[in-house]
Amino acid sequence: MSELPLLPDDAVLERPVRAPWSAKGRVAVCDIGSNSVRLVIYEALSRTAASLHNEKTICSIGRDLVSTGQLNREGCELALESLRRFRVRVENPNMGVVAREAVATAAARDAKNGADFVRDAEAAWGAPVRVLSGQEEARLAGAGVLASIPDADGIAADLGGGSLDISELRGGKTGEGITLPVGPLRLLDLSKGDMDKARAYVDAELAKVSQLRAMEHRTLYAVGGIWRSFARVDMLREQYKLHMLQHYAIPCDRALALCSVLAKQGRKSLELMADVSKRRIELLPYGAAVLQRLLAAVKFKEIVISANGLREGLLFEKMPEAERAKDPLIDFASHENARLARSPAHAMEMFHWMSPLFEGENAEMRRLRQAACLFADIGWRRHPDQRALGTYDEVLNFAFMGADHRARKFIATAVYYRYASEEEVPEEIDIPGLLDKQDSRRAFRIGLAARLAFDLSASATGELVQYRLRTTPSKVMLEVPKRRGMVADETVSKRLFSLGVALDRKAEILLR
Q1: Are residues 172 and 123 in the same domain?
Q2: Cα distance between residue 487 and residue 348, in whole Å
Q3: Domain span at residue 410?
Q4: Is residue 318 part of a domain?
Q5: Burial class (CB in 10 A: 0-12, 13-18, 19+), 55
Q6: pLDDT, tens digit (0-9, with 9 covering 90-100), for 437-477
Q7: CATH code, domain with 53
Q8: 337-369 tens-digit pLDDT
Q9: Residue 292 and residue 236 share a domain
């Protein structure tokens, strides 16, 4: 079989570079961690590339590493079997993978037989495996967070099976990486089930990192499968309706309380938690212990879960600078608009057309309104009875980045009102607490303005410029050319009236 090109990285790989990654074609990333081995195939080297295939195996190659100094034999066999399977996936010509990369982390780096395992892994994978330093792990995890949360400010903390990798995030850049040997697999081996001993070990390691104090009152961006499992438990306890881990925020006091609860639970009790992978159950208390000691050491503002991490960071760092600079929310919305809308150019025409209604909006509100306009026509093929609710649910759960849960709810609500007019979001699908009254009113106004725009234009491009929308302190006015007066029918009048009520103004149609 022909070999696929690898990432150009001579200094680290110390091998001849065969070809650079390309933005055209699918790319595969394999992450050989201390606890799991995962393959993700992305549709392209682009800002909003979706994962076409995502497969993992919990191998625990780092189990017993502290006591033996060796990688776990059974875990290694399972990992190699997985890598052979992954190779079949990526070398299938019908999969269309044009480049691939494999990286190994703490266990392969620290074990006495790590080099032997990496050599076997390369044979199984059919290409080089790059062993990352702890600093590289931390930096790439931070880059993964920035790929999904460009304005992240605080620290990215990636908890793998063997290590906790930390990097500062500020101004769209990652700082110098720090790695600590406090991964759950390592703690399990070291403590022999004694949680007090595990916590004391974590405290001792954290005390060595003087830089942590400078992180106080900023955000902790939690990366890694164990902390995602922790977040799932919190969602279950809080009965949180939006089951999306990306950008899920947990107050520090609530996280500390949950850490205490998990530390006291036996395996059987933990197995009753339906949202936690059975293979992660025994490590969850140790992941909670690391979080507990980290929160005790540093007074963070809040914890935010990042579904992105090392793999996405690797992908992000290899993108062209112009691609990295794109807003992930707007880029995603633009792609979906181009794919699903009747007249894709209509979205930005509508965005500019309604702008006089929103004078004084800040940059973030303008951005969310733009996203709502780009999503406003994606539900046109749905049955009329399901357009409002179906499109609301679709937008709420889209796999876009660059938006927290409040922003998701805001955009989805605006799109809901674009179809549902004066009706309120039904209580059974609403998510209380995300939007305040001002947010809800603004989303309602955007939705009504979009509804009016579609009635005027029938979604055709070049139509809205014929009708000027403007406001005074007491009125919202729609200027209609006399030759188009018949367009301002009863439906348009009704839509304008509703928009006027939402804006606390009288509505008026002016024939010019």
Answers
A1: no
A2: 22
A3: 328-511
A4: no
A5: middle
A6: 999 999 999 999 999 999 999 999 999 999 999 999 999 99
A7: 3.30.420.40
A8: 999 999 999 999 999 999 999 999 999 999 999
A9: yes
